[in-house]
Model the fold of this input.
Amino acid sequence: MTEKITKYPSSVLRRRAEEVSLDDETRTLIKRMKKAVKKHDGIGLAAPQIGESKRVIVLQTGDSFTALLNPEILEKSGEKITTKEGCLSVDGVWLDIDRAKKIKAKALTEEGEEVEVEAEDLLAVVLQHEIDHLNGVLFIDRAGLQKKIKSVILYYFKKYFYVFKKSR
Ligand SMILES: [Zn+2]
Done:
């Protein structure tokens, strides 16, 4: 079965997700998330994106997957980096978003280890994007208001235009 990606403006994307412990339920969730991120060819995925309001994210680099439980950002650099971001939950919208260039985060791994992660550039951006999801924040919220309004209009336009094309 293919995991369905929860799309904007679903309310599960706007909720603060719950902390998890490393149990069978969480392991099953991680498995589903790895499958989904692979299938949809994302760099990262947060549990709310498959409809589960849990603090779990999965990162895909090449053929390997890293799951992080209850990730939390400890430090952010003042230096910023601007990246064109998109999101599996917000089809067809790409926006330049400013984020911290370097971060330090802590999380629990799926092996049950407490780790601290220092990340920069793309990895730092992906971590910030995915951890935002656990707090009900989407990348479009990080754009200026004007860009956000434009992107939401574009999103609905594309969505309904697609439906219209399909139904003909
Ligand atoms: Zn996203």
User: Anything to note?
Assistant: Residues 85 and 94 are 5 Å apart (CA to CA).
